[in-house]
Amino acid sequence: MKISFFRLLTELSSRKSVSRLTGAFAKSRASRGLIPRFAKTYGIRVQDAEKAVHEYGSLNEFFSRRLKIGLRPIDAAPDTLVSPVDAMITGIGPIHEGLIVNVKGQDYTIQELLNESPRMINYTNGYYCVLYLSPTDYHRIHSPVTGDVLEKEHVPGKVYPVNEFGLRHMRRVLSRNERLITYMQHDAGEIAVVKVGALNVSSIQYVVPLPDRLERGDELAYFEFGSTVVLLMENGTFEPQTALEVGSKVKVGEALGTFKRRD
Fold first, then answer.
1. Which residues are catalytic?
2. Which end of the chain has less Cβ packing within 10 Å, N or C?
3. What is the pLDDT of residues 203-257, one digit of tens each?
4. For position 227, what pLDDT does the model report?
């Protein structure tokens, strides 16, 4: 009964209009006064931020802050996939015939996650990693590979929460929420970087200008409030780090696995 009640409340509050109102306030100068309390509540390391707290013009500007140079070194090993975000892994494993199995008890299809893109055939037996960003985390999204941007797609949708409650109790939020999908070509194949919007996320933004080619660790995009990134690796191209599992914490630039070079 309690879960059904909270699910109903979440359905009612998941409209983009509500998210836009929240986002508008977070972008206003009136929200500046909330920054110290927000940082304290979520245990954010303000000393890691590029600027001092009082230099941020709004809560949103602080939330999407950059970090001081050098705090996120990029793994230098060749053919490595690196984490594009600071996050917790909430799903990881092989894709079986287009199906991602048991992300917090729910299954997803590549078809729905990629909005029926013709490119979905490249991932039907690939590998996936779901990375959840909490409000505590740094919210810039970096390129996980060195490669060329092949295609970008914006998929309109809801803004359900992508936290533990949302993933477990709302119906397939990763494929119902608003998404920004970037397909990239690297030396070993193709990768899809799926950025998933969430409750109170006013938008997902690409960096401007977005280059046609990115090096590992270059800025790709950023969230305005917490959300999730899903990485999809092409069929037969990827070997994960064996130590990684659901619940593992990762930071930008850390190795998630290794690509198999094509002959």
1. 86, 142, 227
2. C
3. 788 999 999 999 999 999 998 766 899 999 999 999 999 999 999 999 999 999 9
4. 83
Q: Is residue 75 part of a domain?
A: no
Residues 54 and 135 both lie in one domain: no
- Asked if residue 60 and residue 156 are part of one domain, the reply reads no
| Distances from the Cα of 253 to the Cα of 90, 127, 162, angstroms | 18, 19, 23
Mean pLDDT in residue range 64-88 = 95
| Identity of the residue numbered 173 | V
Q: Is the pTM of this model over 0.90?
A: no
Report how many domains make up the chain: 2
Query: Burial, 79: exposed, middle or buried (Cβ in 10 Å; 0-12, 13-18, 19+)?
Result: middle
What are the DSSP calls for 26-37, one per residue?
HHSGGGGGGHHH
What pLDDT score does 155 carry? 92
Domain contains 70: no
Question: Percentage of the chain surpassing pLDDT 70?
Answer: 83
User: Which candidate, 32, 9, 17, 173, places its Cα nearest to that of 91?
Assistant: 173
Picking from 150, 229, 131, the residue whose alpha carbon sits closest to that of residue 189 is 150
Range of the domain at 46: 5-64
Query: Among candidates 89, 134, 136, 120, which has minimal Cα distance to 240?
Result: 89
- Which of these three, 36, 64, 92, is where a domain ends? 64
Residues 156 and 215 grouped into a single domain = yes
* Domain co-membership, 58 together with 95: no
pLDDT tens, position by position, 184-195 = 999 999 999 999
Contacts of 98 (CB under 8 A, 6+ apart): 109, 110, 111, 120, 123, 124, 125
Give the strands of the sheet with 249-250, arranged side by side: 213-214, 147-155, 179-186, 189-196, 228-233, 127-132, 87-94, 249-250
